[in-house]
């Protein structure tokens, strides 16, 4: 209820302020992101990468001859501040905004943008509700859907790593984690049968500090799994992984791109046997030279490598919107939306990207699988889901 009131208050403030100002010579790109707080590692890289993409466009003469200008507002990793941040940047004239890399934290800002007929792109909200069905026709995400991520991990585990049974540990504090584990379970059962899932348990990443009970139940499972599918995120996820390893459980762990990056690895020294999905490598060792070149340019501009590969999706937010603007020949929202909804297998930095009027998220895109060995990310290769998931709500 508190979230709903915050969104309504922000929308009222925007309406009383007259909405966004019409662009003159410059076109403003807004960022309503977590630039501080615990979500910041997921938004910092995309924000900086988007700035790099804006620089690239401006260096070539701008977009439709107009210079792009970034305007930002910090949500401080507070879900209730998202709507306020969106109101701020739209009020400053933003014609498109980027919101937080998560459905739960990005949706409030996206709802405000939708109400003003402004585009809201998430760099990497992977829950399928971020789009037409969950927010509205102006909401897009450059993520690969959790439906696909879970399927890729299930197929990799069963066919590439020869892991025939799995145990699920799901963080229920976010839609991404719940959707990821549900998708993995569905596909793994298709491959291994019902007996392939030997157990499952839940924890709450925002409230729990210990998963001792879950670990005890895992160790007491009548049939021990060959792998654990861990659907957690960030620093909290790192704490739980440390607890798992500290009890002597050395089973292969599988994780989605919510555990991408090395910023959390200090909490689990010399971690090994950990398979994690990513959009690409932030470490300069991607199989795709184009991504390594991006990492080099990013590092030169900002003085450090991206915290995660979500930077690739941040760059591609600008790529997607700019390409649609060019094809439409205008910044008009309705005309640009029509072009966005026709994008098909576009070779963006984040990977091939397609949108339709019904699906504003990617369902058919290869992703990179790493094996973390002694604390180092070793890329195995890019894998696609053999079965393209159906978008259901």
UniProtKB/TrEMBL annotation:
This is ABC transporter substrate-binding protein.
